[in-house]
């Protein structure tokens, strides 16, 4: 990295090298049997140079030819892409937490035995197919720039996703458990999963109309993708956000608080700097319904004349190659503040409504405008406080800025979401449900 | 390169081993509004190794050559663990041993065009959209992706093939006070740069529609009879039916596998669906898949009867059905999985006016805005649409998403138009991105679709 940085520094005003290495393996068990085991050892380098107020970028996964990488970054300057920001210098960043070595050394047999324990626990308690997916991974990431920054971090994770499929379908209820050391899937969570499955076994018809709707921790991302788009520096700079000029206004229910905090010791991927080397901290976007702060990377912070927020990450909504993606505004380690009602009491208080357990099509529709229209996959119908069964062909639709004004209650417990983040269930009033 | 790959896999203790090495090149230009947000050309490479041993099968992907021994060790360990843990036994279907080097045939090689010309072409289309009334901003990208692939296996097959796709794509955003509406746009293909030239009409029309959407009403949720436009019907074909035709999706779910038995009458009499990546000049075109098997056209459904399926060597053997050459990876970061390539509904005999007359009252829904499936359930968004009353196209509608069950919907397809359109850009995200997933259809009429509205 140092050699590359020096080469880049010689032809630019400022330079930054980002490197990453991922070592991971995964196991798929379908219908109770191992069906796929695969491994991945991937690395990559991204180079950014600043010259005369312009930015040039280049990447490669395999650093075979440093000169080519620098030359590609120089060619990229031909686009005359403006950049008014500077790369950050060193700051007081706490020492990185060192991951448990047990994950580094975890083999396919270990993954299998942890997955099988979850499988054996639920086997016999449900009549449908049981699928278990598990994975472990170790990531080394480093950033070095000409402002003197030279930082790195190592993270490790393992997760198990247990899915119970309703008979003769691929529709499932799922629970996700992740940890930063080698751990079994908690039995308490498996019991909850079996209970959920059992209550959704009957298929029921639901009338089309407006009713109460619960978004569970696994589906609340439908809302958050839309809020992230409209609070991103990108949409403010382009003046396409529905929240333009509404800072410090009450735009959602006062029950709703959304923040990200990568420094929280509870976070599996706790970290103290973002993918641009900016220190991370608790970053509140909505507090008690009031729109407080934008989500910014260095570039948009500069363009909007704001302070960087430590929320620049090389990621997009789906996958993507880390080194190929430029840092973009993104709220990592996000949380919705818990409320004061248990999930059970939340359901008991519903006269007529739907629980959104899984969704199809959260990425479709006019995301920037806040519109959503998602298929229930599955959704459970509730009448007089009791789950009647799962909905046959139903959709829930609305606009986040309307429905999040009508929050009736928020669950008092937080759960890990497979899409990242930690959230409670949210009960909304008066939401449109369409069904056959 | 092929000799080097051969030497890499020699000596590995396994019943089967293959290795794929790829050099991936990529050029991109991104505009947001009038501003260029990024420009660049990059080159990278990597390897994918697959091992079969004692009936177990496993894979490892690796970037650096020095990590290959560990990757091979992990792939062997994975294959052995599948066996010792009672996992799925794998037998690969027999295929001809081939030795071929497939060269690109292009109408205009984008690698010979300078970056300045590409920027100017993209800027021209971008400016055209920005000049239209009510347009707030745009996001328009030029993307050129090349895969120079080299594949060798322990059976003696050695295939090199180069593929190159070029696209200009993005969205145009209209805004009035706090109402924001967007429309997607894309041109491109796998047959060269010249396809991108003189396409002003496409971008102009998309910008006009985005502006018109500001005056459209949100659709009211409910059950409707609908006509889908060719691109939206193509999304249905890909998302709902196509994924179910991929053998790896259904192979481990016994009940779905039974429902999808060849010979079953699953659709109405009017529908015939084909997967054909051998058609030249469309984005899904290729010759060999990523396990060295030549791709073949497959009639998946013939007048409502399930007649074929898309396979890898592994799934073809497990199902006892012919290989089809549909095992494709996004790039060198991924093991190949069963993918569609080009899928479309065969045209029928009725014009759009005939379909509107037959529909009488319902919705005319146009162009896809993403979709997703989970087993037999699917959902997809429409970019815009119109109400239809007494066979006539009425007011414009927006915020349209459709949900359905594959089997019910296939039976509810009532009529097929006589037109036909294939997409110019792919982007299926079945775990990995497939930029060569082409789809298409004529207009089709479906009864009783659930439409979610605000």
Structure, described:
The complex is a heterodimer of chains A (436) and B (454). By secondary structure, chain A is α+β, with helices and mostly antiparallel strands. In chain A, 19% of the residues lie in helices and 36% in strands. Chain A folds into 2 domains: 196 residues, PmbA/TldD fold (2-Layer Sandwich); 116 residues, no CATH class. Chain A has 10 helices and 24 strands. In chain A, strands 7, 8, 15, 16, 17, 18, 19, 20, 21 and 24 form a 10-stranded mixed sheet that branches. With 454 residues, chain B is α+β, with helices and mostly antiparallel strands. Chain B has 2 domains: 214 residues, 2-Layer Sandwich (PmbA/TldD fold), CATH 3.30.2290; 235 residues, no CATH class. Chain B has 10 helices and 25 strands. In chain B, strands 1, 2, 3, 4, 5, 6 and 7 form a 7-stranded mixed sheet that branches. A 6-stranded mixed sheet of chain B has the order 12-11-10-15-24-21. In chain B, strands 9-16-17-19-25 form a 5-stranded mixed beta barrel. In chain B, α3 packs parallel to α4. The longest helix of chain B is centred in the first third of the chain and has 17 residues. Chain B is globular. The termini of chain B are far apart.
């Amino acid at each position: 990295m140092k050699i590359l940085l020096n080469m880049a520094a010689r032809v630019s005003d400022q330079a930054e090298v980002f490197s990453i290495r991922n070592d991971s393996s995964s196991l798929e068990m379908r219908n109770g049997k191992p069906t796929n085991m695969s491994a991945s050892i991937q690395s990559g380098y991204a180079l950014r140079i600043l010259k005369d107020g312009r930015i040039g970028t280049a990447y490669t996964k395999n650093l075979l030819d440093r000169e080519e990488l620098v030359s590609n970054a120089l060619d990229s300057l031909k686009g005359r892409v403006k950049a008014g920001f500077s790369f950050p210098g060193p700051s007081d960043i706490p020492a990185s937490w060192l991951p448990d070595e047990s994950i580094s050394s975890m083999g396919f047999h270990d993954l299998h035995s942890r997955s099988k324990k979850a499988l054996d626990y639920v086997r016999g308690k449900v009549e449908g197919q049981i699928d278990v997916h598990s994975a472990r991974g170790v990531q080394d990431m480093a950033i070095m720039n000409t402002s003197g920054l030279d930082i790195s971090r190592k993270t490790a994770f393992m997760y198990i996703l247990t899915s119970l499929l309703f008979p003769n379908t691929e529709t499932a209820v799922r629970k996700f458990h992740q940890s930063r050391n080698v751990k079994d899937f908690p039995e308490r969570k498996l019991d909850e999963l079996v209970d959920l499955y059992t209550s959704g076994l009957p298929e029921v018809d639901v009338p089309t109309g407006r009713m109460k709707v619960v978004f569970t921790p696994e589906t609340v991302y439908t809302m958050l993708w839309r809020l992230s788009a409209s609070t991103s520096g990108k949409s403010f700079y382009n003046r396409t956000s529905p929240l333009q000029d509404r800072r410090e206004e009450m735009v959602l229910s006062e029950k709703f608080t959304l923040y990200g905090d990568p420094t929280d010791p509870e976070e599996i991927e706790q970290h103290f700097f973002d993918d641009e080397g900016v220190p991370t901290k608790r970053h509140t976007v909505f507090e008690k319904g009031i729109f407080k702060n934008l989500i910014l990377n260095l570039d948009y912070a500069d363009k909007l004349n704001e302070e960087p927020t430590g929320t620049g990450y090389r990621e997009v909504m789906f996958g993507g190659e880390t080194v190929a993606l430029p840092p973009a505004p993104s709220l990592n380690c996000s949380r919705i503040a818990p409320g004061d009602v248990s999930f059970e009491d939340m359901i008991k208080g519903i006269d007529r409504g739907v629980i959104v357990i899984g969704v199809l099509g959260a990425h479709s529709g006019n995301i920037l405008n806040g519109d959503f229209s998602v298929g229930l996959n599955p959704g459970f119908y509730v009448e007089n406080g009791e789950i009647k069964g799962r909905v046959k062909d139903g959709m829930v639709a609305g606009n986040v800025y309307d429905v999040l004004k009508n929050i009736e209650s928020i669950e008092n417990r937080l759960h890990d979401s497979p899409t990242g983040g930690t959230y409670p269930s949210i009960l909304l009033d008066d939401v449109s449900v369409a069904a056959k | 390169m092929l000799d080097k790959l051969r030497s890499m896999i020699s000596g590995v203790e396994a019943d089967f081993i293959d290795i794929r090495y790829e050099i991936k090149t990529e050029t991109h230009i991104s505009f947001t509004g009038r501003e260029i947000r990024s420009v660049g050309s990059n080159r990278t490479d990597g390897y994918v190794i697959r091992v079969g041993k004692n009936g177990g099968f496993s894979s490892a992907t690796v970037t650096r050559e020095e990590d290959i021994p560990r990757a091979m060790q992990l792939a062997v360990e994975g294959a052995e663990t599948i066996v010792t843990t009672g996992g799925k036994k794998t037998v690969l279907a027999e295929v001809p041993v081939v030795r071929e080097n497939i060269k690109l045939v292009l109408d205009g090689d984008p690698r010979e065009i300078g970056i300045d010309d590409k920027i100017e072409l993209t800027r021209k289309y971008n400016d055209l959209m920005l000049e239209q009334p009510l347009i707030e901003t745009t996001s328009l990208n030029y993307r050129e992706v090349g895969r120079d692939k080299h594949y060798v296996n322990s059976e003696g097959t050695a295939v090199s093939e180069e593929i190159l796709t070029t696209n200009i794509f993005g969205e145009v955003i209209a805004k009035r006070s706090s109402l924001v509406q967007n429309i997607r746009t894309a041109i491109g293909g796998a047959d060269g740069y010249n396809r991108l030239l003189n396409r002003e009409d496409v971008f102009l029309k998309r910008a006009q529609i985005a502006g018109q959407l500001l005056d459209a009403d949100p659709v009211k949720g409910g059950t409707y009879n609908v006509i889908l436009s060719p691109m939206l019907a193509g999304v249905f074909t890909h998302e709902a039916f196509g994924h179910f035709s991929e053998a790896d999706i259904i192979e481990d779910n016994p009940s779905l596998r039974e429902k999808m038995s060849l010979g079953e009458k699953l659709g109405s009499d009017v529908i015939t669906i084909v997967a054909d990546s051998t058609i030249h000049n469309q984005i899904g075109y290729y010759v060999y898949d990523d396990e060295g098997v030549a791709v073949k056209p497959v009639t998946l459904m013939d007048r409502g009867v399930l007649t074929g399926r898309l396979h890898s060597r592994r799934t073809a053997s497990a199902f006892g059905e012919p290989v089809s050459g549909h095992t494709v990876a996004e790039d060198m970061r991924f093991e190949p999985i069963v993918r569609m390539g080009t899928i479309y509904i065969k045209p029928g005999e009725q014009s759009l006016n005939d379909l509107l007359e037959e529909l009488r009252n319902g919705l005319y829904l146009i162009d896809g805005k993403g979709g997703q499936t989970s087993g037999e359930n699917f959902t997809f968004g429409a970019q815009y649409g119109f109400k239809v009353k007494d066979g006539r196209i009425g007011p414009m509608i927006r915020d349209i998403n459709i949900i359905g069950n594959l089997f019910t919907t296939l039976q509810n397809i009532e009529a097929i138009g006589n037109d036909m359109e294939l997409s110019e850009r792919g982007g299926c995200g079945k775990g990995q991105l497939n930029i060569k997933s082409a789809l298409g259809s004529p207009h089709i009429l479906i009864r009783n679709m659930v439409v979610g509205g605000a």
